[in-house]
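Title: Prediction job returns without error message
Component: structure pipeline
Severity: low
Priority: P3
Assignee: unassigned

Description:
Job completed but the reporter wants confirmation the result is attached to the right record. Sequence as submitted:
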Amino acid sequence: MKRVVIFAHYDKQNIIDPYVIDYLKELRKYSEIIFVSDGDLSRQEISKVKDLCFDNICKKHGESNDFGSYKKGFILLKEKYSQKFNSLDEVLFVNDSCYLVGKFETIFNDMEENTEIDFWGLTDNYVSFDNPEYHIQSYFLSFRKNVYLDNDFHIFIKNIKSEINKKNIIDNYEIGLSKLLYKKNKNILCYFSTYNIDRYIIENKFELFKDIKKIHKEHSLFYMDNVNYAYSDKFYILLLCGFPLLKVSLLDQNTSYGDKLTFFWSKIITKLNINDKSRIVNHKKRLGHKIKSPYIGLHINICGKRILNIKISNYFRLKLFGIRILKTKL
């Protein structure tokens, strides 16, 4: 299939991080790319994507986050590269809110064979804030020719405007886009749907229970209420099913997600033998974000040497001069 990805980027330091380059390299195996950054990037930064993208827009636009970038890239493709635009099989909207931890080969091969579909994405959700509407999540969307050439789709994209409120962005654009395409009777598919993930859990519950107990003594996988699976403990099931991404915000300590397995993301991706986690750690450090940890730590140093180390999680650990003197379950 002939494809073009509109890739939306934002970085508060106006840097194209190595994890973004990894993602672009993987996408470039299957598609051409237009890179759109909502930031004033230097020539040095833009040069990082020169060999991966056939065009770019790297100027601050401030139009509704990623959807503003999708809009800019789509209009550029449509107006500047009209011949290419009309000859494509798919146009994709993809953003930088995920770390690449797997491969897309199986996904693209499967979807290339699925010729009945008009619009597809990777994950879905039924609830956003107080709006209980089904939608395909907007960090990865793919539109076939009878969608991206449709005039109503063009009007939708053209009408994207600046929104400060995240709820309005999701309601108007993420949910709104799925509603539009459902209303037009387009054939929609979610590759890692909540239905398929739930069915996988039911069919493999005993094996999963044993497996997860090896990672963490207690788990919330089977009784949690969250249906936004890419942002919850069920990210583990997504990875087992071949999901190639890990949401950036899933690992932040300052998020509201209380799911326990997210604290053990590093152990999980190591166990699954997927991509090097150093890119993730380095990105979080650069932005000053604390990665989720199962521990609350207290350290006492004298003359630069640590003499006391206390870690609190489900277990209380106390070390003195590096020697464990107490370990007990709380």
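Comment from assignee: result matches the submitted record. Residues 312-322, 325-330 have pLDDT under 50 and may be disordered.
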